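Give me structure tokens for this 148-residue protein.
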Amino acid sequence: MLDRLLEHKDKILITVIVVLCFGLIRSFESQLFYDPFLEYFESDFTNKTLPRLNTLRLFCNLLFRYGLNTILSLVLIYTLFKDKEILNFSAILYLFFLVMLFGAFLIIVGYFPDKSWLLFYVRRFIIQPIFVLLFIPAFYYQQQNLKK
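Here you go.
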């Protein structure tokens, strides 16, 4: 068991560093990013109107955060699987979800301000590294099935 751990010490170290980076981004989100929705969604937002926001600044900060999470996620995926095809496929998926989520976010903010619950979930996928939690088990399962 110890030999296997020592054999994969680089993978373990990089994984721990990436997970810590995810934690740091989350811990310091209010200092690092402009996001008026942080306080808004911590309260009972169902009966409140959307906060005033600088749309361009919010969009740039969300894009920056999504980019950080994407880069860290791709590093983690490559570290775990060492497969460029999986890395390229993941990058394409992240780009696809970037377009879909930001489009949905802007439509909801602009045309459906009363649908704050929908905005909550779309924003959650933008600011949190949820996709990596879905991709890693899927790629692992795929690799296991290819070995059979």
